[in-house]
Amino acid sequence: MLQQIRDGLAKQLPTLLVDELLAAYVETKKExxxxxxxxxxxxxxxxxxxxxxxxxxxxxxxxxxLNKKLDTDRTILxxxxxxxxxxxxxxxxxxxxALRVVYDVRNNRDAAHxxxxxxxxxxxxxxxxxxxxxxxxxxxxLHHSVKADEAQSIVQNLVSRQAPAVQDFNGFLKVLNPGLLxxxxxxxxxxxxxxxxxxxxxxxxxxxxKMRSNLSQTLNRLIDGKSFVHVDSQGKxxxxxxxxxxxxxxxxxxxx
Length: 256
Hints:
With about 260 residues, this protein is mainly α. The chain is built from 11 helices and 5 strands; from the N terminus they run αααααααββαβααββα.
């Protein structure tokens, strides 16, 4: 999916900035899932600097070189002063303000300076991840060169949940917790797939061999017995809202 996003953005934006943006995004998400909460904020700042430069380019056809200090205050002011209607409000106002929050978390928040006994790292990192998801989804929405419904699908999958306990090997999803029972195993795979869903053949390929013979019964229990899964008219399986809640409440998405 990131390659698709890269290809779409690079048609209208400098590839140097697109690559920097996506590299920081991937690293931030990886560090967050692996528990590197401080590093998540740091990489979020790197993402913000790339995104600010993209906004500069979109409105002036030039940007601050990567090897020069970025004046974020000036950039935010310049964008806000653009004539209303000349560019989307998201580009002029909403994205810059969101990026500023991430930038300030990276630069100004330090647990060592807080005396309330509460470690802010998790809450800060969660905020950073949410903002990055939203900003990247907005950039896809604003700069997509595909049909509207395809762009919407990209955005929906971009902001969907990702499970650290599932690793993607070129399209093969491997659950990293071999102790899960078949139902939880399937539910976790569908959680990872989000709005893409999965076919019976895909799930059969991804589950452990001993789970394959009863896979249809397992899925039927998740569909009818617990309402954790839905199957559409094309035979594709999707996790439901209650299924998402089950995975998150029980921590099934976490690395063992």
